[in-house]
């Protein structure tokens, strides 16, 4: 992992933040994607010790142009950005399709390009 540039989507989430910490320890250069919000809150990344050792990007995987931009000059992508709350998926299913399916397609296509 040493010297690889790694993009982690969902780095602001539970698994992504722990993965971020683990890969920093292994010497990776981390670009950590946090879902944009107007409070400028980085979720679980707010409380990690290695915040100064990573680059935090904010944005949205539903935006394919944004995905194309953030995957440039990256060797490895871990895609963990998702909507995970099952009860809310019954209330707002379109947002789950847009984020989990189209967002994943955006990241995969961008990574291939
Ligand atoms: N936690 C578990 O036990 C577990 C088990 C198996 C699989 N998973 C999978 O791992 C992945 C991450 O899970 P988690 O538990 O860390 O969830 P989480 O909710 O803590 O993290 C997901 C992150 O994705 C971000 N996100 C949501 N929509 C986004 C968007 N449009 N653009 C950019 N970022 C966006 C959220 O801000 C959130 O922080 C999910 O796909 C989940 O299904 C989790």
UniProtKB/TrEMBL annotation:
Gene3D superfamilies: NAD(P)-binding Rossmann-like Domain. One of its GO terms (molecular function) is CDP-glucose 4,6-dehydratase activity. The keyword Cytoplasm does not apply. SUPFAM superfamilies: NAD(P)-binding Rossmann-fold domains. It holds the Pfam family GDP_Man_Dehyd. Its EC number is 4.2.1.45. This is Strongly similar to CDP-glucose 4,6-dehydratase. The gene is rfbG.
């Amino acid at each position: 992992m040493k010297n690889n540039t790694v993009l982690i989507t969902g780095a602001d989430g539970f698994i992504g933040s722990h993965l971020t910490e683990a890969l920093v320890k292994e010497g990776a250069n981390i670009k950590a994607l946090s879902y944009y919000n107007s409070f400028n809150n980085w979720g679980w990344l707010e409380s990690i010790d290695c915040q100064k050792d990573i680059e935090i990007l904010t944005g949205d995987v539903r935006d394919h142009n944004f995905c194309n931009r953030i995957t440039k000059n990256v060797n490895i992508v871990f895609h963990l950005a998702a909507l995970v709350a099952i009860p809310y998926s019954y209330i707002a299913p379109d947002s789950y399709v847009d984020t989990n399916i189209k967002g994943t397609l955006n990241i995969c296509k961008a990574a291939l390009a």
